[in-house]
Amino acid sequence: MPITFIDIERQKNWRIGLFFCLLIFLYFLFAFIIAQTIVFLFGWSNVFFVGSKIKYIAAITAFALTVSSVHFGISAFTAVDRVVEQIRAGVPDDEDGVHRVLLNVMDEIHIASGSKRQIRCLVIPTLSLNALAVTDLKGDAVIAITEGLLSRLKRDQLEAVMAHEAYHIFSGDCLEASVATSLFGVYAAAIEGVKDTVVQEFRAVPFLVLFWFLNSLGEIVTMFISREREYRADAGAVRITRNPVALAEALNLIAGRWSGSGFIHEGLEMLCISSPIPDHHDESEDWWDDLMSTHPPIGKRVDVLLQMARVSHSTLAGREKPRAVFQPEIEQLYYALDSEDTWIGPFRFSELTAFPWFTGSTKVSMIPTPSEFDDSVRSVDDIVRERIPVNLNMRTTFLCPACRQPLMKEAYVDTSVDRCVFCRGVLIDNDRIFRILARREIKCDERFRTLMRAVTADSLRSLTIRKQRLKERKLVHLTLCPRCGRSMFRSFYSYAFLIELDKCSMCRVTWFDADELDMLQCLIENKITDALVDRA
Q1: Is the terminal CB of the chain with fewer CB neighbours within 10 Å at N or C?
Q2: DSSP letter at 126?
Q3: Domain boundaries along the sequence of the chain
Q4: How far apart are CA 289 and CA 271, in angstroms?
């Protein structure tokens, strides 16, 4: 196999040329079939064969050359933009602690490699564990890493993964995979995303045929992408970081978790550090598997790296980055003295604010019927003063949509949220939800599991009713967005995790009532971490 940059450059050039020739042939074949079909159906041979058959073939060839040149130019020069759009990657947040580490590591990779080429790093909003590199003919280059992998890797492991992807770009062997992906894989991925929505209609037939055609082309192109490039990138990462064990640990971690199946589409797999699509070819090494797979077995890659360091597999144990462990807190319930001097309850703080007689001087207690001089009897103002943080600089101008108290800026798992210290509701920017879910772990006790099952069952009934009564509108109280004051729409987080949340499409924020964020975390921990890993 070629091991020098000169060999890689030569291999890259002839393969990109081969892709262009393949594209010309496909457009020629397409135009020829269309023309012959018209001749057969309408008898227009006198139109197509005026002059000679040589002119007829030349015209088709010119058409194929023109269209394929346009297709190739658009695809090869915009590969980065097209792939980034497919995976919905975003720029790292400078205010986020974990993202700052990523930016620092990228700067170190540039310095250690000695290359003048600048690479942008992006973050993919998914809990899966994967990373990819993409570049194009205009010189743009990007390394994208998933939020799940970024949150689970220690710094030395993150350096190894970023060095692996950077080597693909610096050496030039990433370009052929990027061009191939942009020519065929991106279209197959796009059609894969919409084919389920049109499968019930007659118009779905052309879509399905096109999907099959592009998917088949992708498999053909896969034969030209050598899986040996991953071994070279592993070795290149070791030369940059001088730490083969860190890359072996990262690969071992990726192999044991969800690597993005269903989120990163099949057409993009040749760009990833590990194939997101489960395929038996990836774990075998005969000639047919070498031809049909773009990634060698991860087990063998790990073995090679460990041999470099002369260490055993036992070294890989216990090296995952620890995540913050949270115990779902139980919100305090209060009994309140109403306008008729009767103790009622228990209620959450946010529920008490709905009563018209509720004021700052209202007496509350944590026991049902306290005596007049009981120490547990206190006014709402007293409780409010105790709950206000000492640092008032953290107070925001936004009011809690439930209890109308100012939200407090709070540091939370290396990012920030706006929390109500009274009802424990939390306002989170949409792009930060994945970060929080990936970086923390919830210990779900039996009480919380029972609550989670009850909420999910109620949401499932609500979803069933909605489907049966599509034309009926259910009158519900709409929560007002704390930032813009507009009505938020209430919808499920997803149809896989039936937790109803309040979302503002203008401000791109989501309001979580007390327990809702923890319930969502428990659902994800149980369904993704266990079910998808077992399936993989």
Answers
A1: N
A2: S
A3: 5-76, 78-316, 392-535
A4: 18
250: pLDDT strictly greater than 80? yes
Rounded Cα distance, 230 and 407, in Å: 49
| Neighbouring C-alpha atoms within 13 Å toward the C-beta of 63 | 15
Which of 128, 530, 525, 514 lies closest to 325 in space, CA to CA?
525
H runs (alpha helix) in 279-355 = 287-292, 298-309, 349-352
pTM of the model: 0.77
What was the pLDDT predicted at 202? Answer: 44
CA angle (509 as vertex; 381, 436 as ends), nearest 5: 90
Task: Measure the CA–CA gap between 104 and 111, rounded to whole angstroms.
Answer: 11
Measure the CA angle with vertex 473, ends 467 and 476; round to 5°: 110
Whole-number Å distance between alpha carbons of 217 and 180: 10
Q: For 44-59, what is the mean pLDDT?
A: 63
Burial class (CB in 10 A: 0-12, 13-18, 19+), 276: buried
The DSSP annotation for 88-144 comes to T-BPPPTT-HHHHHHHHHHHHHHHHH------EEEEE-SSS--EEEEE-TTS-EEEE
Q: What is the DSSP pairing of strand 395-399 with strand 363-365?
A: unpaired
- The confidence score (pLDDT) of residue 2 equals 42
Beta bridge partners of 504: 509
- Alpha-carbon distance values, 275 to 44, 405, 536 (Å): 49, 48, 12
Residue 302: CB atoms within 10 Å? 22
Supply 211's token pair. 């999907």
Q: Are 75 and 179 in contact (CB under 8 A)?
A: yes
Give the integer Cα–Cα distance in Å for 60 and 66. 10
| pLDDT tens track for 289-336 | 555 566 788 888 998 899 888 888 777 765 677 777 777 666 678 888
What DSSP string describes 148-182?
Answer: HHHHH--HHHHHHHHHHHHHHHHHSHHHHHHHHII
